[in-house]
Write a structure and sequence with these properties.
The chain is built from 3 helices and 7 strands; from the N terminus they run βααβββαβββ. Strand 4, helix 3 and strand 5 form a beta-alpha-beta unit.
């Protein structure tokens, strides 16, 4: 049976470069953008953090918290972003565990509610998220689902 290690980036800051590269490969956002956000978190400039699931030395899941995740509702912040679990690790509770970590961590810092955008339906509800409204994606006319965790 595999045992995974769940951490926030402050617990293992030397993973910053590896984590930035991993998120970049998953989402196509420039690696430098992840590095900048992660540096602000590691330097205590923000409490919006980065959370990882490790299998040995390999990142197999992760997510972050940022001010806004590329949508037009700037008043709905902060946003969980970049939620990803490697395909071979899906359906093992990793994303749910990471979501629980981020909710608990943000609440412990007085940061509530938190939001996320997704095109998934039925997944986030399992972890206490509620559909809030549709929001417009930045640079697109497409609408996407906005969820809230109170």
């Amino acid at each position: 049976m595999n045992t995974y290690k769940y951490i926030n980036l402050r617990q293992n800051p030397q993973l910053k470069e590896q984590a930035a590269a991993w998120f970049h490969r998953k989402w196509g956002v420039p690696k430098e953008a992840y590095e900048e956000c992660m540096a602000a978190y590691l330097n205590q400039e923000t409490e919006y953090g980065w959370y990882l699931c490790l299998d040995g030395d390999n990142i197999v899941g992760g997510l972050g918290v940022i001010e806004n995740d590329f949508h037009n509702r700037k008043d709905l912040a902060p946003n969980v972003c970049a939620v990803y679990t490697e395909k071979e690790y899906r359906c093992k509770g990793i994303a749910g565990h990471l979501l629980g970590m981020v909710v608990d961590d943000m609440k412990s810092k007085g940061i509530t509610p938190i939001y996320l955008i997704t095109d998934h339906t039925g997944f986030y509800e399992k972890y206490g998220w509620e559909f809030l409204c549709m929001v417009q994606e930045e640079e697109h006319s497409d609408m996407i689902r906005m969820y809230i965790h109170r």
